[in-house]
């Protein structure tokens, strides 16, 4: 059943968060360095004690810069082409202002940063829950604050708030790269600029349609899981244990998101972002 926020999985929205959940959301935004709490965190918040357990396990790795560094290395290795078509003249002709383009770039940057960090962090949690062996990697140096994204996110539109043709466009974009069980929140943010959705659909659909996208997604997921597993031995033991059934449900959620929208969008976001005008 969907939550009142109309997220595709039960969740606590940023607007509805209160008390400890609101405090954790604020810390997540500040620590990851983006103005949004991604859906996977909002979903973990519905599990009793789940968000607190996950964040307590991971926070020192964020603070040390280890997650940011591995995420940056993962992003740097995403091998997608620079597609042509999203020129400043073309976007202006679609009715987008300079401010619109700046906000769109901010959204793309926020998701590019947070998705890579999430696959590393949550992949480390998943590796621990699975009891995966820890492969030692050479330390990747970096700063926790490097390339933080500032800005105000636009409304996260629900499908019901969209005109039928915009909803159809959002759903067709979400089908690019498959893994449609979870609707990627980024498209709901970008639905505030319908002409832009049409432009990026025209941009990326041929790349996915000829089979080039899927191997890239699989490679990103495999590399993200590898880097994440190497950090799993450095996770902090939380102050309390989760109930076994909650652990099992959280494990299933982590796997669904990592192998689904997170891995997919780590690949797709730079495909869009690199096509944007400077």
Characterize the structure shown.
By secondary structure, the chain is mainly α. It has one domain (19-273). The chain has helices at 19-32, 39-44, 50-64, 66-76, 88-93, 98-130, 164-175, 185-190, 194-209, 213-231, 244-273. Helix 4 runs antiparallel to helix 10 (213-231) and helix 6 crosses helix 10 (213-231). The longest helix has 33 residues, at 98-130.
Largest sheet, strands/sense/barrel:
none
Which range best describes the helical content: under 10%, 10-25%, 25-40%, 40-55%, 55-70% or over 70%?
55-70%
How much is the average pLDDT?
93
How do the SSEs run, as a string of H and E? HHHHHHHHHHH
Q: In DSSP terms, counting alpha (H) and pi (I) runs of 4 or more, how many helices?
A: 11
**How many strand elements?**
0
Radius of gyration: 18 Å
Poorly predicted ranges (pLDDT <50, ≥5 residues)? none
Query: How does the helix and strand content classify structurally?
Result: mainly alpha
Estimate the global geometry from the Cα principal axes: globular
Distance between the termini: 42 Å
Q: How many discrete structural domains?
A: 1
**Residue share in β-strands:** under 5%
List the helices and strands and how they pair.
Layout: H1 19-32, H2 39-44, H3 50-64, H4 66-76, H5 88-93, H6 98-130, H7 164-175, H8 185-190, H9 194-209, H10 213-231, H11 244-273
Helix pairs in contact: 1-3, 4-6, 4-10, 6-10, 6-11, 7-9, 10-11
Condensed summary:
The chain has 278 residues and is mostly helical. The chain contains 11 helices and no strands.
